[in-house]
Amino acid sequence: MSWQAYVDNNLVGTGKITKAAIYGQDGTPWAISAGFSVSPQEVTALIGGFTDPSALRAGGLHISGVKYFTLRADDRSIYGKQGASGAICVKTKQAVLVALYAEPTQPGEATKTVEALADYLISVNYVRCIHLILS
Predict the structure, then answer these.
(1) DSSP secondary structure string, 9-62?
(2) CA 28-48-63 angle, 5° bins
(3) Cα 121 vs. chain centroid, distance in angstroms?
(4) CA distance linking residue 17 with residue 114, whole number of Å
(5) For the chain, N or C: smaller number of CB within 10 Å?
(6) Cβ distance 129 to 92 under 8 Å?
(7) What is the DSSP secondary structure assignment for residue 81, as one 8-state letter?
(8) pLDDT, tens digit (0-9, with 9 covering 90-100), for 108-123
(9) Which SS3 state, helix, strand or coil, does residue 73 take?
(10) pLDDT tens digits, residue range 20-62?
(11) Pairing of strands 85-91, 95-101
(12) Contact at 8 Å (CB) between 41 and 58?
């Protein structure tokens, strides 16, 4: 399956994620949903947050020009909230999934969708990095 198919079918296609992207851990985009744009600076800050989340905890998570309040930031997952929408970012062995969701999707539904794809990619030992963004 192509990286774009993961974005289109396993994330946005579920109806729980509005926008998504997959990036390598070096910040290289592998797949991005239509109309979704994340700046190189935002990707760099996000990837750095898996190693040192202090900046995300202090200043929030920024994706596509929107600031999200950081709810969780560790070496696997970063979650953000902004009103009724949010962001879920999950790191695999060599990828990060970043996903954005909006009403009427509940945070738990979006989290389950993104974390399940990350678990699958880890289980099949993908060697590259992925970032997905849901809005």
Answers:
(1) IIIGGGTS-SEEEEEETTS-EEEE-TT----HHHHHHHHHHHH-THHHHHH-EE
(2) 70
(3) 14
(4) 9
(5) N
(6) yes
(7) E
(8) 999 999 999 999 998 9
(9) strand
(10) 999 998 999 999 999 999 999 999 999 999 999 999 999 999 9
(11) antiparallel
(12) no
Number of Cβ atoms within 10 Å of the Cβ of 57? 16
Q: Tokens 């996903």 label which residue?
A: 99
pTM of the model: 0.90
**CA 115 – CA 77 distance, rounded (Å):** 9
Strand order in the sheet with 61-63: 29-32, 19-24, 95-101, 85-91, 77-82, 66-73, 61-63
Note whether 115 and 80 are within 8 A (CB): no
